[in-house]
Structures are given as C-alpha cells and as structure tokens.
Specification:
Pfam family, one: Ketoacyl-synt_C
Organism: Escherichia coli
CATH topology: Peroxisomal Thiolase, Chain A, domain 1
Domain Beta-ketoacyl synthase C-terminal: 13-113
Strand content: 15-25%
Protein name: Beta-ketoacyl synthase domain-containing protein
GO molecular function, one term: acyltransferase activity
Structural class: alpha/beta
CATH architecture: 3-Layer(aba) Sandwich
Number of domains: 1
Strand order of the largest sheet: 1-8-7-2-3-5
C-alpha cells in the first residue's frame, strides 16, 4: 500500500444528501492519491465495495466518476461483491484479496453475476482482460459515514 485516504460525512442519517456523501468519498480518494504521490491518471484499476443498494452504489459511482472523468475516464472499474455477496466488514478485505491476485497475474476477471450495470459513465469490467496493473485503487465505506481509499502498488 502506497497511499491511504479517509473522510467522514456527518450526513450519514440523512438519505437525501447523496451528493455530499459522494463528495466525501471523492475526498478520501483524492487524499489517497495525494498520499501516494500520484494522480487519477496513474490508476490502472478501481475496485469498489458498495453493497449494491441504489444509494450506496450511487455514492460510490459518483465519487469514482467525479474523480476520474477528467484524467482517466476509461479506467476499468470492478466490484466483486456479486461473486461472494456483501459480507459487511469483510467486503473490502475480500475485494482486496481479489485485486491482489489481479496484480500478481496482471489480469482482471470480469465482474460476475451481473447482467445490467448501474451507470454507463464508468468502464465496468464486463470481460476478463490482461492489464498492466501498476497502481490499483480500492474504495469503500463503513458504518457512520466513513469513507476510505487505498492505493496499492503492483
């Protein structure tokens, strides 16, 4: 791990403030990139960990889109919770295990068990691909409005 960022949204109990929550997650991403000494353009893969609900998916996807749209709009995006289910606190760890294997193999498996994707603005990995993975970003959220992002160097 070469970069870490976190932030907290005090709007956790107000479901109507999705933009503020997304901005808070984007801030965690920016902090991780800054800590790693890189920019959004240097990220080769983004892995989310949202639980699949419309609100949580919207927060995560908007944060990813808003961070990468200008410098790296085609960055591949994955979230493997559709494979093993959302298992609360372990979701980030399970996704970390998968992306660690991706870095080792320099290959990214397609997102499984998904027919329709949530948002066409991001480049979800729909087919397995060989990919040079130098920097991978893992993002997520915890209870209470806390957001985190890790940059992992391959």
């Amino acid at each position: 791990m070469v970069g870490y960022g976190k932030s907290c949204s005090n709007t956790y109990f107000d479901a109507s403030l999705l933009e503020e929550k997304s901005a808070s997650m984007a801030l965690a991403i920016e902090r991780a990139l800054t800590h790693a000494g890189i920019s959004a353009g240097d990220i080769d893969l983004v892995c989310g960990t949202s639980n699949g609900s419309d609100d949580h998916s919207r927060i995560e996807i908007d944060a990813i889109y808003n961070t990468f749209a200008a410098q790296n709009p085609a960055v591949p995006v994955v979230n493997y919770n559709a494979c093993f289910g959302f298992v609360a606190s372990a979701a980030g760890l399970l996704n970390l295990a998968v992306i660690t294997d991706c870095i080792k193999k320099q290959a990214v498996p397609a997102i499984p068990n998904t027919v329709e994707f949530f948002d066409e603005r991001v480049n979800f990995v729909r087919q397995s691909m060989k990919l040079a993975l130098n920097h991978v970003l893992l993002v997520g959220a915890t209870e209470g409005g806390n957001y985190y992002a890790f940059v992992i160097k391959g």
